[in-house]
Design brief:
The structure is a homodimer. Chain A is of the alpha/beta class. Chain A is built from 16 helices and 19 strands.
Chain lengths: ~475, ~475
């Protein structure tokens, strides 16, 4: 029986959670899962299950899930592999709607018993119609529900936002989440698929495509079991929500490692790339590009075309942004006569006033730089803007000067920025811009690449329509 | 008369500094320069020059540089362009050894008068043998001398280290410095060449090649006036100190902008690339790559060969590192039998134990992961190691467990890391590793690219020998 999307809704948005294998020993994953669930702000019921304890983390514990005197929507399981089939039967009897199975030691191990256990477990779960995230996963977090069903309490610190991550590696999901915390990028769900018992990329895509709090779906992929099914689902999502994918295995040795690690079909990097393109999935080649692009897709409108304007506070960052813009398929547009006239009036003759525009000479005139930005954003020949300014103490007012104009255009045209300053300087201004839909990046190259990828997404989406 | 390198030594390491055009008005650059010099910790004499003030920032001010009753080694000039030739004559009479000329409005402006002023000024400076950094620059900072002769007080917050930057863009130099602050990368000198009156890339390379506190020279370049001379100097530095260069102008539009901005020969990106390769300069293509590579070259020994080992705390980051390693010309080595045996003993069979090595299954055994790292680093078939670990609360001890082994090998083989954790976790451990010569990066891809670039530098240096 295939897993129904409704059951996944309940799994990710449970009213109550049982932790089967909860522990008070920090050397056990069951301890860290309890910590995540009790400290993460989850408002529903939390029921530790451990036959040796009566209480854990100040919460009453139960000998088995059957003994919990309430309904249990989600069970997080951290018991040894051998105990898992029995636990699934108990969960089925209890009416549990979904399981996060953190336990490792199934088909990824050399011992045949692991594969047999996984088959048995899948049979029991399918019979009961219970979707299982895992096994061999860190778990998952639903930030909007303040649910952290993982062994990493720090996931609760990730900001709420519209990006949902499906990751085939716990390590990569953690690294992405830590980058997101540092760069203030918001997530909806962080999901470790692990070894995919009955819930893989395809099932999660179907669910997330319908999930209202997910605006962008980002994937880290090593290899999939059923590429046809994934392609079918991706096609059905095309044009509705952006699908981003970072697939490793470009090199022979990492391809081999990925087969070993996930026990799935890896290989044929180019074949995967072709499939992604055909089905409208946007492929990226690094963890930072995955995050940068997802952030832009979550915050910005998609550009109508590839005509970009580069505005900068100093000439150098503008040139760096131009190089990357052109490499990423953007065209540095020619401004309309009217726009050019407005810019020429705002800036002195010694500035670069065509495209890229160097606003440096107008540092002391907030009105002038606001006028330049408004002129460029309003130009019918401009589909998106890259804006790069390095702080120097004399231009400290630049972000405030531009804020209203950028916010005013943010819902109509994509604007990607590199507003670069030390310490706390500009931090509030940048945060407020990001809340209004204007993402900021650490370098001009990354700001330009983000706009380029918005355009790449747009072309992929159009190809399918 | 060509500028002598001795004079540059005094310019960058002055006993006293006059600020000609110092101001108490925060709307003037002369204010910010005063702030940089008085708050940056400089131990030498600071003499503001302003005919309208008797005191500035609590320091006695003088009507002209001639009136300063002490020797003046360095003059920082922030007066309007028209006043500059006169000031240079005064500096010559006073015996000033070097000038940082922040003033803009010379050959970069459309008005012919700007070019004429610059010619006149260059004639006077050359006559007196005074090297001039600028005009049209933010200035420079010598971190080891606690000298901040720029209009950006925040440069003083950059950590002391071995990287010296020569930048043809103030914006890019600022952005690089802000990235360095966030990532705790240490610098020796940060220099904005501006419009190059009589000190350009070639002169600064000659100086920095001899400068003891400079271990790596990083350049941001738009275009040079005398490529032959630069190539000659680069050849003479080859094999002595790493020269890194980020040249913009890959795209036509940014090439055009760079000609306009710096008034110099830009163009012919590929010609430049050929010249860099021939003379042993390592070319990079982004600001982050410039910083990442400079950091690795500053901290690590250069690898003897291109045989890499990838060790990771989780399989995914290891695969990402492998992909980039191979793309960057590294070869994932086969361990010696002895090494493989040591790793097989340390790790359980369900782990990836060849190369890449997944140390994940040994999370709870600090001795085992230390043994794996020591075995890999000691292998005669290994020239360098990429190490990637994502924090999860259960492996919080990983950095401590590895620290002694990594520090023990750091001076013999390059080790580039991505130790990724949220907030303060691992921060001290990472800092202590970096002090011992083990650089850390935000992602596995950037750690692998850094090792790849160390190897690329090594091959370029060898080609010249």
């Amino acid at each position: 029986m295939p897993i129904k999307v409704e059951n996944l809704h309940r799994l990710f948005d449970p009213r109550s959670v049982a932790i089967i294998g909860a522990s008070k020993n920090p050397g056990k994953l069951g301890y860290h899962v309890m910590k995540s669930l009790t400290e993460g702000g989850f408002k529903g019921g939390v029921f530790p299950v451990n036959p040796k304890e009566t209480e854990l983390f100040g919460v009453e514990a139960y000998p088995s899930v059957a003994d919990v005197p309430h309904e249990v929507d989600l069970a997080v399981v951290v018991l040894p592999a051998q105990a898992v089939p029995g636990v699934i039967e108990q969960c089925a009897s209890k009416g549990v709607k979904g399981i996060v199975l953190i336990t490792a030691g199934f088909k990824e191990i050399e011992d045949e018993q692991g594969a047999e256990l996984q088959t048995e477990m899948a049979r029991l779960a399918d019979q009961a119609g219970i979707p299982i995230i895992g096994p061999n996963t860190f778990g998952m977090a639903n930030l909007h529900a303040e649910l952290n069903a993982s062994f990493t309490p720090e996931f609760s610190q990730v900001k709420k936002g519209g990006i949902s991550l499906i990751s085939q590696s716990g390590g990569m999901a953690h690294m992405l989440a830590f980058l997101a915390m540092k760069q203030n990028v918001g997530f909806s769900k962080i999901i470790g698929v692990g070894n995919r018992c009955n819930v893989g990329f395809a099932e999660l895509l179907e669910y997330l495509a319908e999930d209202e709090s997910t605006g962008v779906i980002a994937m880290y992929m090593e290899g999939v079991d059923d590429p046809r099914r994934l392609m079918d689902v991706a096609r059905s999502v095309r044009g509705k929500k952006p699908l981003l994918v970072y697939k490793v295995g470009r090199s022979e040795v990492s391809d081999k490692a990925s087969r070993f690690h996930t026990g799935s079909l890896a290989g044929q990097y180019k074949v995967y790339q072709g499939a992604f393109r055909q089905t409208g999935m946007l492929a990226v080649t690094s963890l930072e590009e995955l995050l940068d692009t997802a952030k832009a897709l979550d915050l910005c409108p998609v550009p109508e075309g590839n005509r970009a304007a580069v505005l900068s506070g100093q000439a150098g960052p503008g040139m760096a942004a131009c190089d990357v813009s052109e490499e990423r398929g953007l065209v540095l547009t020619t401004f309309s006569e009217e726009t050019q006239e407005r810019i020429n009036v705002a800036l002195p003759p010694l500035a670069l006033r065509s495209n890229p525009v160097d606003m440096g000479p107008a540092w002391y005139s907030p009105e002038a730089i606001a006028e330049v930005a408004d002129a460029a954003l309003g130009d019918v020949n401009v589909d998106g803007v890259v804006l790069c300014i390095a702080y120097a103490s004399a231009n400290i007012g630049a972000v405030d000067a531009l804020s209203d104009v950028l916010k005013g255009w943010a819902s109509r045209k994509p604007i990607t920025c590199c507003l670069s300053a030390p310490g706390e300087i500009w931090r509030e201004g940048i945060r407020s811009l990001e809340e209004a839909g204007v993402p900021n990046y650490p370098t001009p190259e990354r700001a330009a690449a983000a706009l380029g990828n918005l355009w790449r997404y747009r072309s992929l989406a159009m190809m399918g329509s």
